[in-house]
Amino acid sequence: DGVAVLPAPQNLSVQSTNMKHVLTWSPVIVPEEIIHYSVEYQGEYESLYMSHIWIPSSWCSPTQGPECDITDDITATVPYSLRVRATLGSLTSAWSTLKHPFNRNSTILTPPGMEITKDGFHLVIKLEDLGPQFEFFVAYWKREPGAKEHVKMVRRGGIPVHLETMEPGAAHCVKVRTFVKAIGRHSAFSQTECVKVQGEALPL
Amino acid sequence: GLRRCLISMDMRRIEESFQGIKNAIQAKDTFQNVTILSTSETLHSIKPLDVCCVTKNLLAFYVDRVFKDHQELSPQILRKISSIANSFLYMQKTLQRCQEQRLCHCRQEATNATRIIHDNYDQLEVRSAAIKSLGELDVLLAWIDKNHQGTSA
């Protein structure tokens, strides 16, 4: 191992939104030099049973920027320890380890984007494609007193889905939220959006 | 039964991880005519009543023995095995919650089936046994999938 003369990276943290996880840290500055970083991780399994084993991250061993997309490394809903070190030629810093292990069940789930369209009298929705881990809970109803709310589970985003056939002159409304089975959580509902046959989307 | 226990398990991801290492692992298996999991009278004769207990025992078999006994140098394979091992750890926790609700009762048949697997494992030198068991993960995953069709809906 190289002698640890470089300062270790500081301020490690993970930003996670919609099951995309990015590890960031403060860059190590050496004037006129390019610093590289190596990221490694341990799942809870390694921490418990093989604590000497640290696994090089898929995309950042090494990397140049002070951040690393660890989404492909965090593949189970257990705590993961993460560490980073800096390298300059043969010089290597000490490891810096994330203060608190990261669990993907803490990811921020945002309401999904949606596009409501009319195909003649047909109400069609197209949902944001957030990847294979996301399902969509779509609620839709005719806007009138006592109207029944209908529900449809949509397994994948990015493809148009027919919701119902609309009545002329009646406004039909839709709201949607995501569900991630791997962590057993769902997002908040999106804004409600209403459309009326022969009319444009109505403001609420 | 098992369906209520593993409902939130993402089996597809685990199967993908295994497919990524299957050829490399099975190529290292030097005892091709010996099996640890797939003796026909072991897994395939498990009754629904015993599924949860056998799953719990097999997860423990892999977590406590197989993954620990295998030493892997390739980072690519190590990542996949880590993904599977940590997913099994999560499944164990899920089953643990089931156990607390007394839905995971272990009968003698289940215990016997597990012992056969451990005995098969002990017949081989430990590294060979671990490699063979890793190579037979598809047998276990298929068995869990079959006994838990609700997950993949």
Question: How would you characterize the overall build of this protein?
Answer:
- The complex is a heterodimer of chains A (204) and B (153).
- By secondary structure, chain A is mostly beta strands.
- Chain A has one helix at 44-49; strands at 10-17, 20-26, 36-43, 55-56, 67-69, 80-88, 91-92, 96-97, 114-119, 122-127, 134-142, 150-154, 160-165, 171-180, 185-186, 193-196.
- In chain A, the strands form four sheets. In chain A, strands 3, 4, 6, 7 and 8 form a five-stranded antiparallel β-sheet that branches. In chain A, strands 11, 12, 14, 15 and 16 form a five-stranded antiparallel β-sheet that branches. In chain A, strands 1-2-5 form a three-stranded antiparallel β-sheet, with no helix packed on it.
- Chain B is built from seven helices and no strands.
- Chain B has helices spanning 2-5, 11-27, 48-69, 75-100, 108-123, 126-135, 137-146.
- In chain B, helix 3 (48-69) packs parallel to helix 5.
- Chains A and B meet through helix 1 and strand 4 of A and helix 2, helix 3 and helix 4 of B.
- Chain B: Immune regulatory cytokine.
- Chain B: This is Interleukin family protein.
Radius of gyration of chain B from the CA trace? 15 Å
Beta-strand proportion of chain B: under 5%
Assembly state of the chains shown: heterodimer
Distance between the termini of chain B: 17 Å
Strand content of chain A: 35-45%
GO molecular function (chain B): cytokine activity
Family (chain B): Belongs to the IL-10 family.
Disulfide bonds (chain B): 5-98, 52-104, 53-106
Subcellular location (chain B): Secreted
